[in-house]
Each structure stands twice: as structure tokens, then as C-alpha cells.
Design a protein that fits this description.
The protein is of the alpha+beta class and about 800 residues long. The chain is globular, with a radius of gyration of 27 Å.
Length: about 800
């Protein structure tokens, strides 16, 4: 017995030692928010005050020292995120996650972002202010890599840390330029539909923006004289595995003094980005005697993409312009190394790349380039080799000055300096929003736009051989849409179609008018805006479009055929104001009906595969209201029912019946239980959280969440047969900057400031976010020092 007790005692001691060792080890992995460190190359001491939410307020005697410290503190909270982001363009995700990511790596290598970054860096002026500051930021990151604790994800994946270089910064920006990716989802699909069904079906699709919907108005204040299925599938497969989020859309509005209670500008912005953990933005307040910004940083990028100071504020939404075109290439009949151009035959350029694969053999592959860009055949296994399709992307064509633009806008002191940096943003297309303490409000669409031949639609795969379907010219920046201090006293953007300055409609993948209509509806009549009312507006969850659509369709119902429960719910839908609250049943019934209506209308012609791809496009979002309001059209008929020709009314009634049956199956026969909170939830996924046993440690959520697709508080979700609306994108931050009280401006992040799961700031904002709460963006130095939770001091050597 004594021997057993001794053994048990020894085991207990061993277990305690193991647990203690594990706790000590975990504690060493936490970020250091206090204490003193040496940072090589500093000219003087830098003080970093961390506020209650882990946001660093960096005070230094010069900007180079400040941004070096920024690199260090950014890395200690977000090194894993930085690592993944720089690996995308380099085709190095398989090195971390194994063979499942080979297709993704192939795809991104073929885009040429990394080669373009290397070419750009080779031609930089290394003495320019932009480069000096960028290298200081990288020095800070690399000092953390050298001396700081290794994030737990590196241990779990077996990944070695590597220093960061300038090419990594450009690769991160290049990924942002691509991440919209709507052309890949739309153009090949439309080409397939045209070839399969004919032009008559396409006439009833909302391919171009409806001129009767809300467009963004210009006010520049200047005088102004089957293969498709393969491509769509290949891109879907590549992006499906991507372990970092994509940029989606966004809202922003800037209210001029004439419409505010204080007589000062109010600025609001909430960029819509795929949800992930950590969330996209890293907040940091940098202050020196000659420079100050409270900014939002992309992982591995030294200059903030969103920022403000006491003098001006700026933010962004996605422009949604079309900057990718696909071309059919004609191969030489007897020489497969050549393809046809307008002047004759030209040699393909062959590019060979090698992908390192974790737990597998290296994968080498070769793809072809034309003067348009990479040939997708051979990159994706399922694309036929017979007809080459190349991709022309504006990002990799002109000189890359995007980093100079980000440096320029973050250092501008007035509207003219700010505007002068914008022409350097050639891609991605961005709506840049601006407001300042002098009372200016402005919006500029930034992108290298180009004009195509008249009547040519860039929404289909083009003819690459004739030379007749090429861009005619690049537009001057003055021809881009914009509005500066318009007489209606506000500017806004909601990814909707902008009106033209250049006398042409700018091709794009614009979202429907829903959010724009609601924004204008709220902004137009009110002239006493303040921070509180602006913060209520950014949380608005009411659709201006859906109730009118329901009213139109309910007219087709024969109430004598409905049960008492159905009559109650139809009456509730009829009186629904479009508000998406958690305890409401109308949103659940509406979206279930909407899904079945689109499915019953279009899947019979498209087929299941194409239909599911269609659901992932902005075209689908525009089609909902457009299509439902079409009294006649070929889509209404079900091609599988040979004995009858269905009408819109037939499809509406069948869709309601299908939706009702599916809701009863999912939630029972009591419609009062069909509440929005049961189907509309958000979870922020971490790549390691894909392992089920680790999900609760790395993922954040799920939470029931108010809102929906295409309301101001835009919570995007994919449509599928499950009827569960798992939110995968939404506001990546909500910011309200009031120039009458700039030091009390407010914001929120979706989860937390830190990407380190052992930090208390990993998810400390998550519940605040879903509850619609805000926190202060602190700028007052005395308040920051007095309330700081901790201080981290960087000393020079």
C-alpha cells in the first residue's frame, strides 16, 4: 500500500510540475506590455503607453524612432498574421498548411504579385522618406523576431521565423489589391451562361447597374471638357482555402458643417472585410513633435490605411471597379509556343515556379504568360488545355507607387496635399473618404481606369487575338469620379455605382443600391448630426429595399389557400419595416423565401454547379430586387416541366411553400420560434481553429448578431441550402470622428487588438462589438499617461 501511495504521490508531483511548466511556458508567449527594452538604432527613448484595450500610444522624439517601435509592438501582437499575409503572394502557404494549399499557392504565384514587388523594390530610391520609414518599421519587426517570444502558432506548425524585407510590404499591399476578386467569380460565369443559354436569358440579368437606382453623385468643382465554369471553379477552390480574409465592400459618409449640430465635420467609416481572428486592423497612435496619427494598420504595412489626427481624417471603401479582363488566346496551329496578336504571332513567355509543401514533395509547375498576363490553363488542373484564357490585371502593369501614396496621405496636412497623393493608387480601386477641421468634405475614386471600345462588355471573356478588344486609353485622374464640398453638404460611398465624369459608365461589380439608399434616406433630411446620432446610424439594421419587394410579391398570394399560421406570418411580413432585430421572425422567413425564389427561378437553367457559383457574386445581390420585379421573362419557366410554362406568380407561391416546409423541418411548426438569432450568427475563425479540438482556444464566438446583408450594419453571409446565415464578413471597424471633440472620437474592433491567444486583448472587444458598443480613440497625452494600463519603454543601445 505504501508503495502505491508513493507512486501516486510521485505521479501527482510530476503532474503538478508538468502543469506548472506549461503555465510558465505559456506565460513566456504573452506580449510584453510593460518594462524596458533595448531597440538598436534609436536616437532617443520611446515611450509606449498601452490603454485599457491594449492599443499602443507611441511617443518619440522623431518619426523614425516612433515607427521602429511601432514595428516591434505590431509584431508582438500580430506576427502570425504578418507571416501569413506575406506568404500569400509568394506561394508559401503550402509550406505551413501542407498539400491542401498547393492550388492556392499556384494561383497566387501566377498573378505575379511577388515578381512585381521584387521589380518595384529594385527600382526604389532607398533614401526616400517612404523607404527610410518602411525600413525602420521592418527593423522593429525583425528585432522582435530576433529577441521576442515565438508565437504559439509557429510551434504548432513547426514554422521557423524569418526576417521581413521590403518585398514583404509590397506583397501585402498586392494581396489587398487582388482580394476583391469579383471578376474571377463573374466574368467566366457569364460567358458560360451566354454560351449555354443564349443572349435572351442574359438580358434579364442585372449585369449593369440600373439607372433608376441610387448612384453616387459627382461634384468635382472643376470644369470638365464552359471554360468559364472551369475558371470559376479553379478560383473558388483557390480562395476557399485562403487562411486570411478578403476585402469585401464598406460604408462611409462625411457630413459637412452645415448639417451638424456643432458646425464641425463628422466622419464615419466601416470597411467591410472578411471576418477572421485576428481581425484585419491593428490600431496604433503615433506621436512625435512633427507627426501624429491615430491609425489602422494592415499587417506588415508601416503606414495606416485609415487614420485621423486633430486636423483631418480619412478612410476608404472598395470602389468595385473592373480592373481584370479575361482573354481567349488563339494558339498557332502548328507551333504551340506561339499565340496570335493583331500584328502576327508572338512567343509565349514560360515561367516556372517551385512550391515547398509541408509533409510532402516540392511541387514545380510552369505556366505561360502573354502580353495580357498569365494563361490560367495549366495553373488550375480542371481548365481545358485547348483554348488558352489569359488574365489582364491592371495592378501589375503600371509603375507601383501605392506605398508612396499611403505615405503621402498619412503625412498630408491639408486637402490639397492629401489629394496630390491619390493618383499614385492604381489598384485596388478605392473610394477615399476625407474630412477636416477646416470644414472640407470630399470623396475621390482612386484607380487607374481605362476606356474600352464602345459597346464592348468587359463582363465576358474577350477576344485576345484581334487587337480590337483592348483598352483604348488610360483615363487621367481628373476623369475619376469624385465630389468635393458638394452643395448637398455630405459625401458617402456604399460600393454602389458612381455617376460619370468622363462621359462613360465605369465598368465594375457594384453592389445594389440598398445601403446607399438607406444612407441617403437618413442623411438627407437631418441637419443636426452629432457623434451620438452618427454612431446610431452606423449600427442601423433597417433595409429600405426589402419591404417594398415583399409588398409587391405578396400581392400574388391567394390568402384562401394559406393556413392560419401562414396568414399571421404573411401579415407580419407585409407590415415588416425591414428591421433586422434578433427576436424578429420576419427576417428569417424573408431570407428563406428569397433563397428558394432565386433557386426555383434559376437553378433549372444554370444547373447546380453554376447556380452555387452565381450565389457568390455581386450580380446575385443585384439580381434579387431586379429579378423579382420582372413581370415577364424566360427565367420564370422551369425547363424541367415540359407540360406547363411557369409564371412569376407560380415561382413566388412555390418558393413560399418550400420555405415554409424547410423552416418547419428545421425549427418546428411554431413560427414564433423562427427568430433571427437562431440562424444569424458570427464566428471569427483562426486558421488553427480549423482543428476542432483547438477551435474554442483560437476562434472567437459564435455570437447571435443583428444586421444582415446590404443594410448599413452590413453582416454578409453566403446563401446555401442549409438556411443558416453564418456571417463571414462585416464592419472590420466602426469609426466616428467628430471634429468638434476629436479627442473623444470613438471606434471598435470585431474581436480585439492582439492576435496572440494568450493576451487579454485577444477578444476583449468581441461582445462589445456585437452589442453595438464603442470605445474612445484616445489622443490626449495627459489622459493617456494618467489612465495607461502599462508602459513599455524602448531605450537606445
Amino acid at each position: 500500500m505504501k508503495r502505491i501511495k508513493k507512486v501516486l504521490w510521485a505521479l501527482a508531483v510530476l503532474l503538478v510540475l508538468i502543469i506548472a511548466g506549461a503555465l510558465i511556458f505559456v506565460n513566456t508567449l504573452k506580449p510584453d506590455y510593460s518594462g524596458e527594452k533595448t531597440l538598436p538604432g534609436l536616437e532617443s527613448t520611446v515611450n509606449v503607453f498601452y490603454d485599457t484595450y491594449g492599443i499602443p500610444h507611441i511617443y518619440a522624439e522623431n518619426e523614425v524612432d516612433a515607427i521602429k517601435a511601432l514595428g516591434y509592438v505590431h509584431a508582438q501582437d500580430r506576427l502570425w498574421q504578418m507571416e501569413l499575409l506575406r506568404r500569400v503572394a509568394k506561394g508559401r502557404l503550402s509550406e505551413v498548411f501542407g498539400p491542401d494549399l498547393v492550388k492556392t499557392d499556384k494561383f497566387f504565384l501566377s498573378l505575379g504579385i511577388d515578381d512585381y514587388s521584387a521589380q518595384t523594390v529594385a527600382n526604389l530610391d532607398m533614401n526616400s522618406d517612404m523607404v527610410v520609414l518602411s525600413r525602420a518599421y521592418l527593423d522593429g519587426i525583425n528585432e522582435f523576431i530576433k529577441k521576442g517570444p515565438t508565437p504559439v502558432e509557429f510551434y504548432l506548425t513547426g514554422l521557423e521565423k524569418e526576417p521581413f524585407v521590403l518585398e514583404d510590404v509590397y506583397d501585402a499591399v498586392g494581396y489587398m489589391a487582388f482580394s476583391f476578386a469579383m471578376a474571377h467569380k463573374t466574368d467566366p460565369l457569364l460567358s458560360s451562361l451566354r454560351d449555354k443559354l443564349g443572349a435572351e436569358y442574359l438580358n434579364d440579368l442585372a449585369i449593369d447597374s440600373d439607372t433608376s437606382t441610387v448612384w453616387i453623385k459627382n461634384y468635382p468643382k472643376v470644369s470638365m471638357d464552359s471554360l468559364g465554369v472551369d475558371i470559376t471553379n479553379s478560383v473558388a477552390q483557390a480562395l476557399e482555402k485562403l487562411p486570411i480574409p478578403q476585402f469585401i465592400g464598406s460604408n462611409s459618409w462625411v457630413i459637412a458643417p452645415e448639417k451638424t449640430k456643432s458646425g464641425k465635420v463628422i466622419f464615419a467609416n466601416d470597411p467591410h472585410i472578411g471576418f477572421a481572428q485576428p481581425s484585419v486592423w491593428y490600431e496604433a497612435h503615433v506621436s512625435t513633435p512633427n507627426y501624429e496619427k491615430y491609425g489602422y494598420h494592415l499587417a506588415g504595412v508601416p503606414f495606416p490605411l485609415l487614420a485621423h489626427d486633430r486636423n483631418l481624417a480619412y478612410g476608404m471603401t472598395m470602389f468595385e471597379n473592373d480592373d481584370i479582363d479575361f482573354y481567349y488566346e488563339e494558339m498557332h496551329p502548328s507551333d504551340s509556343t506561339k499565340y496570335k496578336v493583331a500584328s502576327g504571332w508572338k512567343d509565349f513567355e514560360y515561367v516556372t515556379k517551385t512550391i515547398k509543401v509541408k509533409d510532402g514533395e516540392d511541387v514545380s509547375f510552369t505556366y505561360k504568360n502573354t502580353h495580357h498576363g498569365p494563361v490560367l490553363n495549366g495553373i488550375a488542373d480542371q481548365i481545358s488545355q485547348e483554348t488558352p484564357v489569359s488574365m489582364s490585371w491592371i495592378f501589375t502593369k503600371p509603375k507601383n507607387e501605392v506605398m508612396d501614396a499611403l505615405h503621402g496621405i498619412s503625412h498630408a496636412t491639408n486637402i490639397e496635399e492629401f489629394k496630390s497623393a491619390l493618383p499614385k493608387i492604381h489598384a485596388p480601386g478605392l473610394n477615399i473618404m476625407y474630412g477636416d477641421a477646416q470644414g472640407n468634405v470630399a470623396w475621390w475614386a482612386t484607380a487607374k481606369l481605362y476606356q474600352m471600345p464602345d459597346s464592348l462588355s468587359t463582363k465576358f471573356i474577350l477576344d485576345g487575338a484581334s487587337g480590337k478588344e483592348e483598352p483604348l486609353r488610360y483615363l487621367d485622374f481628373s476623369e475619376n469620379p469624385s465630389a468635393v464640398n458638394p452643395p448637398w453638404h455630405y459625401v458617402y460611398s456604399a460600393n454602389n455605382q458612381p455617376d460619370s465624369i468622363a462621359g462613360m459608365v465605369y465598368p465594375g461589380y457594384y453592389l445594389p443600391e440598398n445601403r446607399a439608399k438607406r444612407i441617403v434616406e437618413l442623411l438627407e433630411p437631418k441637419n443636426d448630426w452629432d457623434k451620438e446620432s452618427a454612431s446610431e446610424m452606423i449600427l442601423d439594421v433597417t433595409s429600405s429595399v426589402n419591404p417594398s419587394l415583399i409588398t409587391e410579391l405578396i400581392k400574388m398570394f391567394d390568402v384562401t389557400t394559406l393556413t392560419n399560421e401562414q396568414l399571421v406570418q404573411v401579415d407580419s411580413l407585409k407590415n415588416w419595416n425591414g428591421h433586422y432585430s434578433l427576436n424578429s421572425t420576419s427576417p428569417t422567413l424573408y431570407h428563406r423565401c428569397e433563397y428558394f425564389m432565386v433557386k426555383n427561378t434559376m437553378e433549372d437553367e444554370m444547373g447546380t454547379e453554376l447556380f452555387n457559383k452565381f450565389l457568390a457574386t455581386h450580380l446575385f445581390k443585384r439580381q434579387i430586387a431586379w429579378g423579382a420585379n420582372m413581370a415577364e421573362g424566360k427565367w420564370w419557366d422551369n425547363v424541367h416541366t415540359k407540360d406547363m410554362v411557369e409564371t412569376r406568380r407560380d415561382i413566388v407561391l412555390k418558393s413560399f411553400a418550400d420555405a415554409w416546409t424547410s423552416l418547419v423541418e428545421d425549427f418546428g411548426p411554431d413560427p414564433s420560434q423562427w427568430t433571427w438569432d437562431k440562424v444569424h450568427t458570427v464566428e471569427h475563425p483562426h486558421p488553427i481553429g480549423q482543428v476542432e479540438s483547438l477551435r474554442k482556444y483560437f476562434n472567437v464566438g459564435p455570437f447571435p448578431v443583428e444586421g444582415s446583408r446590404e443594410v448599413i450594419n452590413n453582416m454578409g453571409f453566403p446563401y446555401d441550402s442549409t438556411g443558416l446565415y453564418k456571417v463571414n464578413s462585416g464592419p472590420s471597424t466602426r469609426r466616428i470622428i467628430d471634429f468638434s471633440d476629436v479627442e473623444n472620437s470613438i471606434s471598435i474592433l470585431p474581436t480585439g487588438q492582439s492576435g496572440n491567444p494568450f493576451s487579454k486583448h485577444y477578444k476583449d472587444q468581441a461582445e462589445m462589438y456585437v452589442q453595438g458598443k464603442f470605445r474612445k480613440m484616445m489622443m490626449n497625452q495627459q489622459e493617456i499617461e494618467n489612465t495607461a494600463e502599462s508602459v513599455l519603454i524602448f531605450n537606445k543601445e
